[in-house]
Model the fold of this input.
Amino acid sequence: MEHTQGQYKQKENCQVIRQEAVGNHIYSLWLHTETIAGCAQSGQFVMAYCQDKSRLLPRPISVCQTDGNALRLVYRTAGEGTREFSALKTGDFLELMGPLGNGYPLDEAEGKKVLLLGGGIGIPPLLETAAHLTGSVTAVLGYKDEIFLKEEFEKFCPVVCAVEHAPDDTADAVTGNVLDAVEKRDLAADMIFACGPTPMLRAVQAYAAAKGIPCWLSLEERMACGIGACLGCVCDSVHEDEHLHVCRKRVCKDGPVFLSTEVAL
Amino acid sequence: MKTKIRTSVEIAGVTLKNPVMSASGTFGSGTEYAQYTDLNRLGAVVTKGVASVPWSGNPTPRLAETSSGMLNAVGLQNPGVEVFCQRDLPFLKQYDTRVVVNVCGRTQEDYCQVVERLSAEPVDMLEINVSCPNVKEGGIAFGQNASALEAITRAVKKYAAQPVIMKLSPNVTNIGEMARAAQSGGADAISLINTLTGMKIDVHRRKFLLANKTGGLSGPAIKPVAVRMVYEAHHASGLPIIGMGGIQTAEDALEFILAGASAVAVGTANFQNPCAMADIIDGIEAYLEQYKIDDIRSLTGAVDG
Done:
């Protein structure tokens, strides 16, 4: 491109380092990036563009991990777009824009006892968070049935798994959801970082309110522009947003991470 | 030496440096996209719909992708005309581009109030949105009936200090009749098409994908419909036309111009490529050079036959 490259943010065409399935319909994709990996914060996301241009909208995918210039995305195939990504091989390219959104406020967690609560495909974004938190951290990972990424979390912090469809509690996993696991294992916290499906986040939000624990939730919503212009991906907010002047917030721009007391789920 | 090529166009006495502008609702007030693309290059920025007071819009999900298209049911969420004038307009005035404000409302009074509020502001043109399929009352009700369209055009014109563009709905039987109605009401120009009303159902969950059930279909899927309607509207009225509907490339834009548009707007393509409009402007210039056309205005309606 000829026009003023330095002045404007741009998409980046990233080369695939490797990709593998880490679970049923769950893929781990490592990409080489010039800029994105270097400045991505935990909890931020990228927009990934399909090669098949009949699929117009980019797919928002959270940052799972960074390592120098390498960026890791762990995602679930949910439709044709993510199925296209799952076919990417070493040496192929994927166009990304980002990093986008705000990310988890790691400074706020300094010296605190932090619980990371992840549910399903909300688990991957907490891996980079676990890697960067310095204090006392426990990750509670909730699955329907199949466990993934557990060993990788164990490199950074103690892990408790909650498996919804498990027949019985075991030493490794509690039967039930993440809050069942928090209760059964009597896990205390001064701060919660959570990411997962909306029903889980709603329960975590209520739990944090009841216990008076500051809690940050990463929300998911269908997106189009990814930069705050189209207002496609809003969530409800408790107070009037100072930019939008209504009780909504933009998940892509004002989030995806929100204080649990500022959003209505 | 290259011959001097004229890319500027005139709409209702307002000169645009080139015929490419943003389509309302896809580009906000340009604030966010200014970090990705040079707004100075654009013929105009057409803002997201502005109402007399803040609107909260529809519940989510507001978006669904379809084959070569997308449905949206944002529902004209906007912070209201006061915030627009105090915050967004000064931002846009930093750039060397025309400012077209899209105006939305539920009643005739709503539209007139916004238009009057903008009359002393540094706005180049007004685009009156009587064709949004995503709001329950007002809006599209004015855009689907020729006499209602003529009446609201006439009402708005009484308060307007700037040229008025009526944005037409494709969800009508006879687009030519609607173009003539806008003209009879005193419109200075028309823009078309707004989105086509659509629906998508998740068969596994047996649920609508959009909370609003229906949404507006945009993107390349609707382009042939839009080109045909621009052609019909061009032949039905003498009004200048801003053509839109699925434009992604310079060739797409030129199709609309040859069908009868004086300028074009680019919407959904911005989501796939934040520099889509700059790329389209470059492509139009290359086309003019390739075919040795020295004035883009000579292409309007110039399709053979």
